[in-house]
């Protein structure tokens, strides 16, 4: 069986930056095991599989896999898959489409060269002490910012938000893989576990997302799902309305820009993240 696929770089203003994504079309006859094997073979942070396409109504169903497991929601795969659908698959490059993912329908808008997604309502889970993080990192007490809590947040995939006091602390961050893995297994509420470290400076965010996959410490170039959680977090604790740019991936040679546009009104979160995608390649995959 031969499947067409595309490769795009997401949250990138040029090729070979941002976060890589493989998008597989005509995947409705693949088993979950086959999708997982293909995602592991290509070994990007995530790959998507389009399992249903409604060209008349500009809708699609997709599944999202990391090399290790399936995701219920992930931002850069949704942004990148939407770019492929709008610019390569659907007729007349529609400005809005709907993607169905395991957590439900996601509304997508294309505005000029930006793809925007609207995230689900967030959930705010446990708050943690700074001392926990000094046990499995090189961070010292003065490296943490003091305005906001350290908290696990989810909009479909969960991440622990960890604010730092300087860009230097973010740049020099080192984790002990085994101790960090054990802490996350003991404290995070879902099987998907990630730490999102950030430094807020005016209208700019600088961030790093680290997690454990296949017993390896992995850093992501651009994490849309974590960005929706961080946007919700900042709406709750920082400002009820803002626009800013989140810079991620600088420390692994894949600079990324994730645009935030959010508003909190009477406990309703309007969470939007946007980004550019760059077309890299297309081909046929022998499944």
TrEMBL record:
GO terms for cellular component: cytoplasm. GO terms for molecular function: isomerase activity. Belongs to the PhzF family. Coiled coil: none annotated. The active site is at 46. It comes from Flavobacterium panici. InterPro entries: Phenazine_PhzF-like. It comes from the Bacteria. This is PhzF family phenazine biosynthesis protein.
């Amino acid at each position: 069986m031969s499947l067409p696929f595309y490769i795009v770089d997401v949250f990138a203003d040029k090729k070979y930056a941002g976060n890589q994504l493989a998008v597989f079309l005509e995947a409705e006859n693949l088993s979950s095991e086959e999708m997982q094997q293909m995602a592991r073979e290509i070994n990007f942070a995530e790959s998507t599989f389009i399992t249903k396409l409604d060209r008349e109504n500009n809708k699609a169903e997709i599944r999202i896999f990391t090399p290790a497991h399936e995701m219920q929601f992930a931002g850069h795969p949704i942004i990148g898959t939407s770019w492929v659908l709008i610019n390569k698959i659907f007729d007349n490059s529609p400005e809005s489409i709907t993607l169905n993912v395991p957590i439900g329908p996601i509304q997508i808008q294309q505005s000029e060269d930006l793809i925007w997604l609207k995230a689900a309502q967030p959930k705010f889970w446990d708050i943690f002490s700074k001392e926990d993080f000094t046990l499995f990192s090189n961070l010292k007490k003065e490296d943490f910012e003091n305005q906001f809590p350290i908290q696990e947040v989810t909009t479909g995939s969960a991440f622990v938000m960890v604010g730092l006091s300087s860009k230097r602390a973010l740049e020099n961050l080192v984790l002990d893989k085994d101790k960090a893995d054990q802490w996350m297994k003991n404290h995070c509420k879902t099987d998907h576990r990630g730490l999102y470290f950030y430094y807020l400076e005016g209208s700019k965010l600088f961030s790093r997302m680290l997690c454990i996959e296949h017993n390896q410490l992995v850093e992501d170039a651009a994490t849309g799902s974590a960005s929706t959680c961080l946007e919700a977090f900042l709406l709750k604790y920082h400002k009820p309305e803002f626009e800013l740019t989140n810079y991620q991936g600088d420390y692994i040679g894949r600079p990324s820009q994730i645009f935030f546009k959010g508003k909190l009104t009477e406990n309703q979160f309007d969470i939007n993240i946007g980004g550019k995608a760059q077309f890299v390649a297309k081909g046929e995959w022998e499944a």
